[in-house]
Structures are given as C-alpha cells and as structure tokens.
Amino acid sequence: MLDVFRTASKTWIVRLLFALLALSFVAWGAGDVVRGGVGRSPAIEIGHTSMSATEVMGEFKREVERLQPLFGGKLTPEDARKMGMLDRTIDSLIARTLIDEAARSLGLAATDETILRRVASNPAFKGPTGQFERDIFRSRLARVGHTEDSFMKAERTNMVRNQMVETVAAGISAPQALTNPLLAWREERRVAETFVIRDESTPLPAAPDAASLDAYYKDNLSRFMAPEYRALTVLLLRPADVANAIDIDEEMVRETYQQRIEEFSTPERRTVSQIVFDESSAAAKATDMVTGGKDLAAVAKALNTDIIELGIVEKNDLPEGLAEAVFKLRAGATGQPVKTALGWHVVKVTQVQPGRTRSFDEVKVQLEQDMRKEKATDGLSELANRVEDALGGGATLEEAAKRHNLKTMKIAAVDAQGRGANGKPVADLPKSDQFLDVAFHTDQNTESPLTEVPNNGYFLLRVDGVTAPAPRPLADIKADVVATWQAERRQEQARDKALKLADRIKAGESASQVAQSAGAKLETSKPFIREPGEGSSLPPTIIAELFKAQPGGVATAPVQGGTVVARLNSVIAFDINANPALTQAARQRVSQAVATDIADQYIAALNASIGVKVDRPQLTREE
User: Fold this and answer.
1) Considering just the CA atoms, what is the radius of gyration of the chain in Å?
2) Do the beta carbons of residue 520 and residue 236 sit within 8 Å?
3) At what angle do helices 85-105 and 580-610 cross, to 10 degrees?
4) Residue 84 backbone zone (phi > 0: left; psi -120 to 50: alpha; other: beta)
5) Distance CA 156, CA 150 (A)
6) pLDDT single digits (tens) 211-243
7) Residue 32: predicted pLDDT
8) Rounded to an integer, what distance in angstroms lies between the CA atom of residue 423 and that of residue 417?
9) Of all helices (H) and strands (E), which one includes residue 274?
10) What are 144-176's pLDDT values in tens digits?
C-alpha cells in the first residue's frame, strides 16, 4: 500500500492536490484547520464591542445554573432554550453592552477608590466583627467562578452602567392625571349575592345506547388514553450489599474515640454577670467595694450603673485576660476588676457547670454505627465503580450484577407517575425523586448513568421496552366512559337549570326567592376586586362579568361540582384621599413602570445609533 502511495505522489495530479491543500493552510490558518473549521466571525457586534459565540453561551449556561434551584436541579440547556432563555440572555447582553458603549463615548468611569469602597462595604464580604475580610472575599468569588480581577472589572462596569440607567430614569414621577383614574379603576370593589346549583341536584341521566356511547368515546379519545409505559430492568446497589465485607474491631473503635474525643467533651460553662467601666477611677472604687465584701448588685447600685447579663458562657467566649479571671472564681463570687480592650470588668459567677467527657463505653455503639456507615459508603462507591467498569467492558446489566453477587429487578410496566398498567403504584421503586425522570429520559435498550439514591445507595436501569400512549379499548373502560358521559349530561342539566333561575332574577324576582325555590343557599360575597387573588370565592369568569355589569346585573359560570349564579349587589368606589398609603404605593409602581419604559426607549435609541448585529444561526448551532 505504501508503494502505491509513493508512486502516485510522483504524478502531476497528486502534486496539484497537495499544492491546493497547502494554499488552504495559508488562507485559513493552521490553527483553524487543527480546530476543525475556519475562523468564526463574532456572534454579536455592538459598536466597538464584539462577543464570540463561546462568550454568549457561557453567559447562557451561567444563567441556567443560576435558575437550577427554581427547577429542582432538572433544568437542561435544551429546556432553557425552548423557554426562550437564550433569547433573553442575548437581549440582556445587548442592553448592557449598549449602555457600556454609551458610557464609554461620554468618558464615564468609576475610580479605584470608589470601587474599593463599594466592595469593602458589601455585607457578603464581612466577617463576624463586621469588617471586610479578604479570605471571605476570595472564598465567595471562587464559589461563583470569579477571580479578583474579573470581579473588580465587573463591579466597575456595573457601577457606571447603574449610574447611566439611574440618570435616564431619575426624578420621573407619574402624574396624578394618570395614576388617580388607574388607581380608582383597579381598586374599585364590588359585592355580589351568589348561590350554587349543584350537579347532584338534577337526576342522573340513563346510560346511553351502544351507538351513542361508541360515538362519544371516539369523539373524546384523548380523554381515555393510556399513558406511555416503560419496561425496566433495575440494578440497585444498597449499603446492605457491602455490609458483610465490613469488619470493625474494638481497637479501631478506641482509636476513633481518641481522634474524636473533643466531640464527646463538654467544656466547663459558667453563668456570668458583669459591670463594665470606661474610667479607671470608677474601677478603683469598685475594687475597694469588692475587697470590702460587696457583691455585684451592691457595686452597681453604689456607682449608679447597670449589670450586664452574659448568661452561660464558655472560656472561649470571653476576651483574653477576662476568661482566665472568670474561670478562677468559685460559684457566687465577685472578682476584682479586670482590664480589657473594652474597659474595666467587674464580674460575678452565679453558677458553675463542670466540664465532662463521655466515656468510651457511653459512645461505643454510636462510634461503631458511624464507622460502619462510613465504610459502607466507601465500599458502596468502590462497588459502583466496579459495576461501571464491567458495563464499560461490554457486560450486560445482568452479567455485571451476577459478577458482583447483586440482583436485578424487573418492572413490567410503569408510567411517568410511578403507576403500573393496573393504575396502582408500582411497589419497590427506588426511593429517589430522580428514578422516574431517569427512566423516561433513557433510550430504549440503553443503560442509564449510575445515579445516587440519597442515603440509600445507587441505581442503574435499562429500558427494555416502550409502550407508546394509546387509547384504552372501550371494552376495558366502558364503565368509566359511561360515568363520564352521565356526569357531563348531568352538568349540562344543572347549567340549564341555573340559566333559567338567572333569567327569573333578571325578570325582577329577588335572588333570595329564586335561591330558596331551588333549595340553594344564598350568600353575600366579601368585596372583591378585578384581579381575583388566591383564596377568592368567586371564579374569574364571574368576576369579569360582574365588573362589566351595573348593580342588579346577573352572571353564571361553572364551578367545581355545579354552576354559580351571581347578582351584582353593590359597587364600592375607591376613595383616593382615604387611603394615602395605598395611593402612594400605587403611584410609585406606576412611576417605576414609566421609568422602565423610558429606559427601554433609551436602549432602543442606543440600538439605532450604535448598531447591533447578531449572528443567530451561529448561536443556534453552538452547543
């Protein structure tokens, strides 16, 4: 074969091909060829600023990670794209960069002193003393993937950016001519008389004939679908699978006891009261009184000061110098004044709780349990690695299980809610919120990744079969279909009854008489607003209709188990002057909305003047 290549390489055709290949290196650059493609143009260009697709996707991924807790840790980049999060990330980057470009053109910049002062005042970077601590600063930056330089750069940019936006929207206040009518409209309340015609107040219709039932079933197939089912083979790795290999002798337990001795030791504690003086002269007077046998209460009274109760303290809780003095006193004794950086302290110890260390025999059982749990965790992790290695080597799930004396479990059918084909929960599913999610995101005839079950080991599964959603045969669910048909007809009868009763109220009968004739209970609602809140007793459709009506107007709407009939009883106008707090809050909200609109218009103007180019196909291709 090599001889053939050598011979062919001497022909003019092959030499021409090599020449073209060399030219491609010159035109594209060797680096691009090695990376697998030609150099890419920027994904976003804004004025003098360019962003690569990698930078944009990095920002998108950070946004996905930030929102993970809201989705229980199950938000995937693909799901985020479908929700429009990539588009929002792009829009956010564009808006921020447009403001940066405008600030740069105006020569705005934040000084180093201002940035340092801003960072030092951030509560997130302060220690227990309330002072800025560099170690905390570095730790928190590392946690969010920032270096000091990158964070300071971001802070500098954010400060200028915020000043720009605040300047554009500063001092904007919505006029009362706008806010007062809006507030009066929004805060108007109404009261209605209501009663419910229950579905059960009408007779249950007779079952339909076979032809009608079959037609109803076919017209409503989507309501009688069986869900997707999956057949699974599951391999569970539990702590019990490695328990027999754990051997713990007493010597090991005693060694652990010595290592953890501080954990079982309770330090001496004392109940302490004190007086603190700023002046040494006052401390000298206190010294004379204590020497003369006066206790803390007498000293405080004589020197017209207050006693500070420290409560129960340990030696480490007190400043150096004071701690030694306090822990030398006997119970009930008052000590001589002691000077610290905080002043002169006169202390009294009212109670002493001796320190104690629990004996080995007292904690032996706890130590053994902890050691077994720790070793089981380590052993289980090793077992999981060996199982993964076996699967990686080509073994089936069953072969890997047999090789390590484990058992697999077969699940004939399970849906995404954990129910079997009989509609009942499948027994013995792994107690993990992720199990069903993993099962329904694994391809058929494929093993899932090894997944941890909190506090109970790991699981692996293989999807052996997938039964697609399909209509349940009418013969199998005939009773359910008949019951659904009857419930719908009954609901229609109740609705017709309610509509006739509503017509009687419209014709002039009182709501109480009409409700009484139907055997329904008339109720007067609490005042309600246009936008029903949580716990509202009226359905939104009724509220919407009653806000269109004049007093005496009637509306109906379906509710759970029946139909509600409502008559508008009264309209309560909102008094702006009688509700100053609510009025002011509403005006602030409207002012903020106006300010936001103006800021958006400013961004749009910057977009038009500076120019924005977005290569969305490139971002769509980017993984």
Assistant:
1) 39
2) no
3) 80
4) left
5) 10
6) 999 999 999 999 999 999 999 999 988 777 766
7) 40
8) 10
9) strand 269-277
10) 667 777 777 777 777 777 777 677 767 777 788
CA-wise closest residue to 86 among 60, 64, 55, 112? 60
Predicted pLDDT at 59: 85
Is residue 274 a contact partner of residue 345, using CB atoms and an 8 Å limit?
yes
Q: Are 574 and 188 in contact (CB under 8 A)?
A: yes
- Other CB atoms closer than 10 Å to residue 397's CB: what's the count? 21
Within 13 A of 100's CA, how many CA atoms are on the CB side? 17
Helical axes 176-187 vs 580-610, angle rounded to 10°: 120
Q: At what angle do helices 360-392 and 250-259 cross, to 10 degrees?
A: 100
Question: What is the SS3 assignment for 331-376?
Answer: CCCECCCEEECCEEEEEEEEEEECCEECCHHHHHHHHHHHHHHHHH
- The pLDDT of residue 4 is above 70: no
Please provide residue 270's backbone torsions phi and psi, each rounded to the nearest 5 degrees. Answer: -135, 145
**Which is higher by pLDDT, 506 or 256?**
506
| Distance, CA of 588 to CA of 575 (rounded, Å) | 18
Mean pLDDT for all residues in the chain: 83
Q: 44-48, 263-267, 406-410, 617-621 — which is least confidently predicted?
A: 617-621
Number of Cβ within a 10 Å radius of residue 553: 16
CA separation (Å) from 264 to 96, 256, 269, 361? 55, 12, 15, 12
What is the per-residue pLDDT for 23? 39
The backbone region for 92, taken as left when phi is positive above 0, alpha when psi lies in -120 to 50, beta otherwise, is alpha
How much is the pTM? 0.50
Q: Which residues of 323-340 are buried (b: 16+ CB within 10 A; e: fewer)?
A: bebbbebeeeebbebbee
The rounded distance, in Å, linking the Cα atoms of 421 and 424 is: 8
Q: How many Cα atoms within 13 Å fall on the side-chain side of residue 260? A: 18
* Residue 444 DSSP one-character state: B
Q: Categorize the per-residue pLDDT at 20 as very low, low, confident or very high, splitting at 50, 70 and 90.
A: very low
Distance of CA 164 to the CA centre of its chain: 31
DSSP, res 311: E
d(CA 60, CA 82): 13
Count the alpha carbons within 13 Å of 283 in the hemisphere toward its beta carbon: 17
